[in-house]
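Need tokens for this chain, all 237 residues.
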Amino acid sequence: MAPLDLSDIATKAVSATVEVFTERGVGSGFIVQPAGLVVTAQHVVEHDGQVQRHVKVRLNAGTINDVVLDGTVFRAHRQLDFALLWLEEGGPFPWLPLGTPKSLRFAQTVLAIGCPSGLSNTVSAGIVSNPAQRYRQIECIQTNADIDHGNSGGPLIAEGGVVGINVWGLGNISAAKFAIPIDYLTEDLHTAAQLGRTACLQATFCPACGHNDQHGGLWFCRNCGFQFPSEEPANDA
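Here are the structure tokens for all 237 residues:
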């Protein structure tokens, strides 16, 4: 079978890339499960030092199938800068398969997809500048693909699979754009897929650190010690 060309890869990836709206603004994300499991960047859903529980997610932007759905955040990680959320029930949704970041090579072609400055379904191509660059005390994928404001949380694609979450850029240096390798959150994704939407959203969620605790009814976070307001923890069905 002939390999897909970049246009085919980009078209499939765009269909599974979404826009995430919060009080802070708009970022990007992508679906990794047909039931509606979405990955984005933690800083996209953070507001005033806490992770927002409820967001809006736009699918198929600019097409006749354009739709905005409710999304509920149930897991986040500040240092690794990722967040996971479930779309409201529906689907099946188009989704992206996971790639293998550790197989990336110098100068390998990658695609970054997102909505920089609100421009929906924007695809930029580049190469891997360094497949294992240390930045912010994390081993990241460094590329020269354009990653601008609004791209945060979108997928970095290599050979048809998502290998990273686009998160940072170092000033105006074109060859210094960074993505968090997707295998940093493989276990979280596997657990979320196994538990399913209802169980994930019924768990205790900490807005301070993003921890998801399957022991419901807690008044404090067992990960960071944050004490929930009287109306917390937020357990949503």
